[in-house]
Design goal:
β12, α7 and β13 form a beta-alpha-beta unit. Helices cover about 25% and strands about 20% of the residues. The chain has a single domain, classed as Alpha-Beta Barrel (TIM Barrel). It has eight helices and 14 strands. By secondary structure, it is of the alpha/beta class. α2 packs across α3 and α7 packs across α8.
């Protein structure tokens, strides 16, 4: 019997044991479950600014963890080894929520403030984020999610009250660009608006030459963010060739700074990244 996964706009209809487009969710006994639950491929104590979060507990550190899977197919993905990996190809080990939270607590003496769910797309396995975040809150830790934001409001309502800060990738600001990467712009816009109601939110846009680098696009993007909160930080980041975009040139530094200046006409906090 087919079951529909309802966490993102793909709405994958899956037969028994079939895995969705994200490679992280499957129909098991007529129920959609995250097959990447607790399967960690990456763990590191990072500066909070690396998420990037510039206006959330600056100069602190955060225990950052990732699994495998993603519901987008960006050809410029910097973490494609895990975001595009299947369960069989991911080099993962199981870490239950209790163990992860205790590891985070043990690092408080090293300026750790909590847990960041990042590296791959963490919300394709939002149940693990939820369970860890609940326990982390009980220990006085902060929860941070780094996400593409291409998820539906109803299932995400379960975790929103538990997340202290988001960095959300707003990949571009045209529907055409989002179609190229298998996403939906309006869904991401709704997610940003929803997240900002209860959490600190910062937005990142990676500027790719001839793809999403038009001045008008950044004007519209910054206007949208300003409509939510003029104090919401925006990170304008420089692209470097990677994954399936090895033939692209790096973004010119001058271009990044120019687009950042355009965004500053609408927003109070704009940061250039990778320059």
């Amino acid at each position: 019997m087919k079951i529909t996964c309802r966490i993102c706009p793909h709405l994958c209809s899956l037969d028994e044991h079939q895995v969705g487009l994200c490679k992280a969710r499957s129909n098991q006994e007529e129920k959609i479950i995250p097959i990447n639950y607790g399967q960690l491929t990456s763990i590191a104590l990072d500066p909070i600014e690396k998420k990037p979060l510039m206006r959330f507990y600056p100069r602190s550190k955060i225990l950052s963890v990732g699994s495998f899977g993603c519901n987008l197919k960006c050809q410029f993905c910097q973490n494609h080894e895990i975001s595009m990996a299947s369960k069989e190809k991911a080099n993962a080990r199981y870490v239950p929520p209790e163990d992860l939270v205790m590891a985070a607590v043990d690092l408080v003496s090293r300026k750790n403030i909590g847990i960041a769910y990042t590296y791959n797309e963490p919300l394709v396995g939002y149940e693990y984020v939820r369970d860890c975040a609940k326990l982390a809150r009980e220990k006085g830790l902060k929860n941070v999610v780094v996400t593409n934001g291409c998820f539906l409001k109803e299932p995400m309502s379960e975790i929103m009250p538990l997340i202290d800060a988001f960095n959300i990738d707003l990949k571009g600001f045209t529907s055409e660009f989002y179609k190229k990467i298998g996403g939906d712009l309006e869904t991401v816009k709704d997610f940003i608006t929803f997240a900002a109601e209860s959490s600190h939110v910062e937005v990142t846009t990676l500027i790719i030459p001839d793809e999403n680098d038009k001045e008008e696009e950044i004007e519209n993007l910054s206007k949208f963010i300003a409509g939510i909160d003029v104090n919401m930080p925006l990170h304008i980041s420089r692209f470097f060739p990677c994954y399936k975009m090895q033939d692209k040139n790096s973004t010119e530094v001058e271009k990044v700074y120019k687009l950042a200046d355009i965004a500053r006409k609408k927003l109070n906090y704009v940061y250039e990244g990778n320059c």
